[in-house]
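Hi L., both proteins are below.
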Amino acid sequence: MNDPKYIGMDVHMAMTVIAVLNSAGKVVAEAIIETTASAILDFLKSQRSTVHVTFEEGTQAAWLYDLIHPHVAEVVVCDPRQIAEQGNKSDRTDAKRLAELLRTNGLKAIYHGEHGTQALKELAHSYGSIIRDGTRVKNRLKGLFRGRGIVCRGTGVYSEEERDQWVKRLDHAALRVRICRLWKELDLLVQLRKEAEKDLMAEAHKHPEIKILRSIPGIGPLRAAVILSFAITPYRFRTRKQFWRYCGLGLRSKVTSEYALVQGRVCRSKKRPLVRGLDPDYNHALKEAFKGAAVTAAMGPWKSHFDAMVENGTRAPLALLTLARKIAVIAWVLWKKGERYDENKVKFVHAA
C-alpha cells in the first residue's frame, strides 16, 4: 500500500530542517539539508510514496513553491501568523509541527498558483518598492529641515527650481551636502519610477483582463496592473467577503452568546454582530489601489453618490471606504464574468 508522507520544512537561508510523517502521524524520517534546489529535490525524490509538503510563507516561499510543485502531490504554503506557538520552540519541533498540521488539515494556505502573471507581479513589486523608497527620501528631506526649525510644507522642497533657496536657509556646510545627496537620490528614484512604470505597463498590455479592470470607474491602467498583479485570479476567492478581506476592506465582527434557550428549544439570538474595524491582515498594494480608485471615482463619475452618502450622515472616510468596497466587488464580479463595466447595471443605495 502506498502510504502517503507529510513533510514539514523549516526553511532558513543556509539550511532547511525537515520532518517526515506517515499517515498515522509517526515520524519516519528527519533531515537537515542545504537550502539549495539540488539538495531539496534529491531529498523529495528519495521519498518513495505520495508526498505532501508544507513550509511557511517567507522570502524564499515563491521560489520553493515553483521548485517543488512539479515533483510532489501537494504543496501548501502556510501563513505563520495563523499558527499558535506551543511549548519550546526549535527548528526540529517547528518542522514536526508543520508536518502534523499538514496531515490533519490544520493549516491556512496562502495562494501560490498562477504562473502566467509572474512577470507582471515581479514588475509590480519593483514599482512599489521604488514608490516606497521615494516616500522615505521625501520624509527624510522634510525631517531635516523641520529638525532645524525651518517650516517645510507642500512639495516645493522637492522642486529643482527651489532647491537653491532651501539650501541658503541652512547654516551648516555638512548638512547642505547631506541635503544635496538626498535630492540626487530623489532624482534618481524619479527616473527609476518612470522606467518601472513603463515596464509594468508594457507587460500589463499582454493580459486581456486589464481592459476589463480599466473600464471600472477610478481604475486606470496603473491600478489595473497592480490589481491583476496581486489578485492574480478572481477564482481564488469564493465570496466577495473573502476578496474584501484580502484587499484590506473586510470588516471584522464580533458576536457572543449566539444561542439561547427559548421554551426548551435552542434558538439563535437576535444579537447583531459588533463591527470591530477592518481586518488587519491584507495585501497593502491592493488596498492602496482600491482606496485610490475610490477617491478618483468620488471626485469624478461617482461624485453624486459620494455626496449623497455624506449628506445622509455618513462620514467622508466611511463613504470612501464604501465606494472602495463597491469598486472591489465590481472588479471581482466582472473579472469572473469577463465583462466590461456597464453603469446601467450598478445600483447605489443611500440610507437616510
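That was the first. Here is the second:
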Amino acid sequence: MILSIVLFFVLFLVLIFIGVPIGVSLGSTALILIIKYQMGIQVFSANFYAGIAKFPLLAIPFFILAGVIFEKADIAKRIVDFSRLIVGNMTGGLAIVTIIVAIFWGAVSGSGPAILGLILIPAMVADGYDKGFASAVTASSSGLAIIIPPSIAFIVYGLITQDSVSALFAAGVVPGLIIGLCLIMAAYLVSKKKGYKVENVEKLTLKSFLSVLKDAFWGLLAPVIILGSIYGGIATPTEAAVIAVFYGLFVGFFIYKTLTLKILYKALVTSVVSSAVVMIVVSFAGLYSWVGNVLGIMDMVANGIINFSDNPIVVILLINVTILIAGMFLDAISIYYVFLPIFIPIIHHFGWNSIWFGVVLTINLAIGQVTPPVAVNMYVASNVAGVPIEDISKWAFLFVLASVVGLAIIILFPELTLWLPRLLNLI
C-alpha cells in the first residue's frame, strides 16, 4: 500500500515538475499503476471513453464557444463602456470597472475574461495607472469567472460529487459578489493612495446613460437569459449553454453585425482546441482518480486526515491550505479529480453541505490562478501588458489577501452560500 501511494502521488508530481503536461502526467501515472498492479490494460480505453461520455460535460464546449462568440461580437467593449460611464471619475474608477466587468463577463461566458485585459489594461495605463497594478487587477478579477455562474468548474464538481449543477450555479452568486467587493475595496484603497483617478470621463447624464445602455443592452441581457433559463426551470445548464451560443450568434450577426462567417469559423476552431484540451484533462484525470479508488488510496488518505484531527475547523483550514498550494501548480479540473475522492468521505464525516464545500473549494482555485509558480491568469496578463511577472506579483499579493478575507467570510457564514439555492428550491 505504501508503494502504491508513493507511485500515485510522487510519480505524478515528478512528471509535473519536469514539464510534462498535466493531462499526460495524470494519464501516464494511471497507466503505470494499471500495468504494475495488473488491473487490466483494457480498462484504460473504456475508462477514457466513460470519462467524457456524460451529458453534463456537453455544457463545457458550448460555454467555451459562447464565450468566444461574445468576445468576437465586441460585447465586452460595450459592457466596458457602460460600466465606465456608471462608475465615472471616482477614485480607482477604471480598476473598479475591470472587476465589475470581470464579474459580468463570468456570468456570460463561464470562462476567464482574458479578452478584457486587451481592452482595460491599455486604458488604465493611458490614464496613469501603474502597468503592474493594472495587470494585477485584471489577473485577480479574472478568477471570478470560475465562481460566478455559469462556471465550467462547477460543472465538473457537480459531475464528480453528483450535486445539482443548477444549485452550484446559484450558490456561486453571493460568494462571487463578496469576493468581487473585496477586490473592489483593495483596488479603491490602492488607487486612493496612488491618486489613480480619471478626469476626462464623459459626464453621466440621462442622455448619455440611455445612449450607452442602448448600445450595451443586448450584452447586458445575456446573463439574464442564460441564468434565468436555468433558475426558472426552463433549461438544464447544458441546454442553457446551447441557448447562450445561439443568443451570441443572433446578437453578433443581426444586432451588432460584428460577426461574419470567417470570424465564426475562427471562433469554432478556437473553441474546438480549447474544448479538446479540457476534455483530455477530464478523461485522464478521471482515470487517475479511478485507479486511486480501486487501490484504496483515496480512502486511506481521507481516514488519515480524519484521524489527524476530529475538529472541523482544523480540518477545513488544512483542506484550504492544501488546495491553495495545489492551485499554485494544477488547474481546477485536475484538482477536483485528484482531491475530491479524498474529500468526499471527509464531507460526509463532518456533515458539511457539499454545495457550500464546492464553492469554498472553487474560491481557493480562483485564488490559485494568481499565485506563482503556475499563475495562469498572471501569465496571461503579463503577455497582454508586456510587463514582467515580478511587477505584477507585488500588486497581486494585495488582491490575494483581499480574496482570502472574502473566503474567510464565506467559510464562517455558510448561509451566505446556501441562501439563494434554498430560495430557488434547488437544495
